[in-house]
Write a structure and sequence with these properties.
The protein is mainly beta and about 150 residues long. It has one helix and nine strands. The protein has a four-stranded antiparallel sheet with strand order 4-3-8-9, with no helix packed on it. Strands 2-1-7 form a three-stranded antiparallel sheet, with no helix packed on it. Strand 3 and strand 4 form a beta hairpin. The chain is flat and about 75 Å long. About 10% of the residues are buried.
Length: about 150
């Protein structure tokens, strides 16, 4: 291989490494939730690395989730933890496929991790706030003092 060709390949690889190292790390937050007859509680929250899944196609609107900051709403989406779609069972079973309404459910909410994000709010269909949780500290590590 000629010296010029090797130099071109090295420069191209170096450029790719520089550009990829300057790309922002994509992160999202998972809120592990419990729904029990209209009441929400949080079981945990974690910061995950990767691409945030797009849920803009969601059509359910029983509850509205908002990610807020001091300046207002940063992100909003709707969801319904009471609704489960079942595919049913085999022909010898009495279980039919279709929607199932739940009174109690464990589920996860996935929201984008935005640096200015401070609180997650959940509103019911009437616009009343039914849940609030701070998320500014998700993924933070406590300091150890000796």
């Amino acid at each position: 291989m000629s010296m010029i060709k090797a130099l071109k390949i090295f420069c191209a690889l170096f450029f790719v490494m520089i550009v990829s190292s300057q790309q922002p790390i994509n992160e999202y937050i998972i809120l592990h939730m419990n729904y029990n007859e209209g009441k929400f509680s949080i079981a945990g929250k974690s910061l995950e690395k990767g691409f945030y899944p797009d849920y803009s196609h969601t059509t359910s609107s029983q509850y509205t989730l908002q990610l807020t900051s001091e300046d207002g709403i940063l992100y909003q989406n709707s969801f319904d933890p009471t609704l489960l779609y079942s595919e049913g069972a085999d022909d010898n079973s009495d279980i039919e496929g279709g929607p199932v309404i739940l009174d109690n459910a464990d589920f996860a909410l996935i929201i984008p991790s935005l640096p200015e994000g401070e609180n997650v709010l959940i509103f019911d269909a009437n616009g009343e706030k039914v849940f609030e949780e701070d998320i500014y500290n998700v993924g933070a590590t406590s300091c150890r003092i000796r």
